[in-house]
Amino acid sequence: YLEGLYLPLKDYQLNRLLAFIDPAKDTSGDGYQMMQSIWAIGSGGLWGKGFREGTQSQLNFLPEHHTDFIFSVIGEEFGFIGTSVLLFVFCIFLLRMVTVAMKASDDYGMLIISGVVTMILFQILVNVGMTIGIMPITGLPLPFISSGGSSMWTNMIATGLVISVGLRGEKPMF
Q: How many degrees, rounded to 5, is the angle at CA 85 between CA 122 and CA 71?
């Protein structure tokens, strides 16, 4: 219950949402991850501190910095320029998949690629959003960057499906 209102959430879920609304209220508890992430990205500045020179990640102030918060590490060590380059590469990758989808020989191939693009785009938006503090912390990895085997396998298989559709050829002109 939250002020007499029933919410179908467990206590830790409610605490995460409350920490998202005001992370500075409990910087040593539920708001700790978000505050450390924001500080890490902000301390990177324009060019960053340099590879393996980030204090938040190297001194383990930033929890789960190799998985869920890898974007914060990139922001701290490579700065705004590094994160912009990473997001630009993701945009090129997704736009290339959309191009392959438009040239697919059948609707089924186009739908496969649409699903893969949606899946990867959603993961990117949620991961980046949670590390910069505009979304609640959920634990979704950054595709192809975060440490973790199952996510990498899923993204590689999905990319393989896109390549397979692209190899099948283009739509007939008639």
A: 55
